[in-house]
Design goal:
Elements (H helix, E strand, L loop, with lengths): L18 E3 L16 E6 L11 H24 L2 H4 L6 H5 L6 E6 L14 E4 L5 E5 L6 E4 L5 E3 L7 E5 L1 H6 L9 E3 L3
Antiparallel strand pairs: 1-2, 2-3, 4-9, 5-8, 6-7, 6-9
Length: 187
């Protein structure tokens, strides 16, 4: 998909935020330099889906959503009552039945000589959602910030998942679960 001109038939909708986002269309909060990536947002049931999208992509989306609901139910079960009292509803119920679950497919192309030398594939940021589930990348580059503000490489083991806490979980837990600061560095 990302290697075809077909992607331009699905340029993102500014209001719905679904569709194809071209190279360097996003920069992390607080950064003026655009990230070196392109991506596609899929929302179901209402989002635009390319005709040639693999059935496996939709299956992965469904399975990741199911995994997310399971993980959120575990967080619900293991969260101390004084923190859980801050949740307006159980976390898994915030996702189950929601029409705003997002599958973001990201493509990090090879670096080019004309890329800004200060640009990263994805500058340091936190995600806005409850949790983010990432399929392990095929190449290294993902880093997370630890509790001592040091960057730690995340291994890219095929078949593994990486789970990050997002701003919404940090907010509804009143900081008990801190949002994961992460970035994707260049090779």
């Amino acid at each position: 998909f990302f290697n075809s001109k077909y992607k331009y038939d699905y340029i993102f909708d500014l209001h719905k935020q679904d569709g194809y986002f071209p190279m360097k269309s996003e920069n992390a909060k607080g950064y003026s330099v655009k990230d070196i990536k392109e991506f596609y947002h899929i929302y179901l049931p209402w989002g635009r889906i390319p005709d040639n999208l693999s059935e496996n992509t939709l299956l992965i989306r469904k399975e990741l959503k199911d995994i997310g609901i399971t993980l959120l139910s575990w967080i619900d079960d293991l969260t101390p009552d004084n923190v859980k009292n801050n949740f307006s509803i159980q976390l898994q119920n915030m996702v189950d039945g929601s029409i705003t679950n997002l599958l973001r497919i990201i493509h990090y192309p090879p670096l080019r000589d004309d890329d800004d030398k200060k640009a990263l594939r994805a500058a340091a940021h936190e995600d806005i959602n409850l949790i983010t589930i990432l399929l392990s990348g095929s190449k290294p580059g993902l880093q997370v910030k630890d509790t001592e503000n040091k960057w730690v490489d995340v291994k890219s083991d095929y078949g593994s998942l990486v789970v990050n806490i997002g701003d919404m979980l940090q907010e509804c837990s009143k900081g008990y679960y801190p949002s994961t600061t992460h970035r994707v560095i260049n090779p």
